[in-house]
Design the sequence.
C-alpha cells in the first residue's frame, strides 16, 4: 500500500510540473538532461528510518521511470539532502 501511495503522490506532483512551464529547469544549476524532472527530497540520513524512506522513494522513482506509459519521454531524478545539521 505504501509503494502504491508513493507512486500516486509522485504522479500527481509530476503531472503538476508537466502542466507548468519547464523553462526554470533549463536555467537550473542542477546537471540537466533532456526531459528530466527533478524532485527534491529531505530525509534524516542519520537514522535507519531515513534511509528506509529514501529507499522507498527511489523505488517509486525507478518504477515510474521503468513504466513507459506513465511519463513517456521524461525521466525523474531524485535530488536528496539530509535534514541533519552538523555543528562544528
Sequence:
Amino acid at each position: 500500500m505504501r509503494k502504491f501511495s508513493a507512486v500516486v503522490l509522485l504522479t500527481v506532483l509530476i503531472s503538476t510540473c508537466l502542466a507548468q512551464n519547464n523553462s526554470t529547469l533549463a536555467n537550473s544549476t542542477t546537471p540537466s538532461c533532456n526531459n528530466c524532472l527533478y524532485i527534491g527530497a529531505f530525509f534524516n540520513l542519520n537514522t535507519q528510518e531515513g534511509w528506509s524512506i529514501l529507499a522507498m522513494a527511489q523505488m517509486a522513482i525507478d518504477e515510474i521511470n521503468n513504466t513507459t506509459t506513465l511519463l513517456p519521454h521524461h525521466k525523474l531524478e531524485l535530488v536528496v539532502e539530509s535534514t541533519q545539521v552538523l555543528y562544528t
Summary: The CA atoms of residues 46 and 84 lie 7 Å apart. The chain is about 45% helix and 20% strand. Residues 1-7+34-83 form one domain. Residues 19-31 have pLDDT under 50 and may be disordered.
